[in-house]
Amino acid sequence: MPQILIFFVGLAGLVYGADVFVKGAASLALRLGVSRLVIGMTLVGFGTSLPELSVNLSAAFSGRLDLAVGNIVGSNIANIGLILGIAALVAPLTIHVSLLKLEIPLLLLVSAGLWLLGSNGQLGRPDGALLLLGFVGLLLLIGYSGRHEPRQIEADIVEGGVPSSVDATRATWRDLAWIGVGFVLLLVASRLMVGAAVDLARLWGMSELVIGLTIVAIGTSLPELAASTMAALRGEADIAIGNVLGSNLFNILLILGVTAVITPLPLDPMLIRVQIPVMILFAALLYPLSLRGRSVGRPAGALLLSAFFGFLVWQLTSID
Asked: Which of 10, 78, 235, 318 could form a disulfide with 189 if both were Cys (CB 3.0 to 4.6 A apart)?
């Protein structure tokens, strides 16, 4: 009972933290002259990936390496199947051309690259360094692409009015405060939920790999769920989608990169044969689902959600 109570207290903190985080990030995007998609893929994507980073660093230093890798693979599957599925059910998500040309293919490339790097059964320190180099390249690419969307940014600013310099400064500090409060709530609440979930899973006799792929992965993905759902409710489709794509890229390039540099990560053969290919398949699903009407609508959301729960049930019933 105490663990269940902690779990739901964490859930409440996640929902409120995500609401204020998205509110501050969306407002700050306009004031800085940055598109919502870039904000979603960087600020929101990184902020909601912090639980994965925290869990992986803790797992690496404590020698729970199956948990660390399973957390990232499971989180990336949950981000697309669970988070985008629910967000699309809340409100259809418009897909910009840049996503089809760049961001979604990039996620597929990075996911396939992870599978190739780990095909020898391990992610070593050189592999981790290569992933971190890719992360630096990702930041440069996002910054470059964000500078080429001036028309939409100008339209958003004109629509919102042009405030005085004093009002703009106050509003910027207010937005930063909202982001800070939301960020802290997301981090603390997610740790509460993951800790409670792991304790409950151990009582049920689950292995660390299964815990990482399912309970911990869902727990660390809850900030993405809360942030993307709130963004969808507010009509911020760019932030909802950018958050998921950015988080998945950060999970592989930054978090697995840092973890592998700290300590080489042995990969369970089942990860190479099954779970990582499934992660790639979920990313690949985004492309055909997005082509029709350039949006992920409610039918597509229902399909993603059904596929995720099918994967979850399969993992819980077939893996020792």
From this structure: 10
309 falls within a domain: yes
Annotate 65-88 with three-state secondary structure.
HHHHHHHHHHHHHHHHHHHHHHHH
- Region 101-115 average pLDDT: 90
Q: From its phi and psi, is residue 53 left (phi > 0), alpha (psi between -120 and 50) or beta?
A: alpha
**Assigned domain for 54 exists:** yes
CATH number for the domain that contains residue 211: 1.20.1420.30
Q: Is 142 helix (H, G, I), strand (E, B) or coil?
A: helix
DSSP structural state of residue 163? -
**What's the pLDDT tens digit per position in 197-224?**
777 777 777 777 787 788 888 877 877 7
Dihedrals φ, ψ of 122, to 5°?
-160, 145
Q: What is the mean pLDDT of the chain?
A: 79
How far is it, in rounded angstroms, from Cα 162 to Cα 315?
52
* 284 within a domain of the structure (yes/no): yes
Contact 265, 123 (CB under 8 A): yes
- Flag whether 104 is in a domain: yes
Q: Write out pLDDT tens, residues 112-144.
A: 999 999 999 999 999 999 999 999 998 888 777
Range of the domain at 43: 36-149+207-318
Report pTM: 0.78
Count of structural domains within the chain: 1
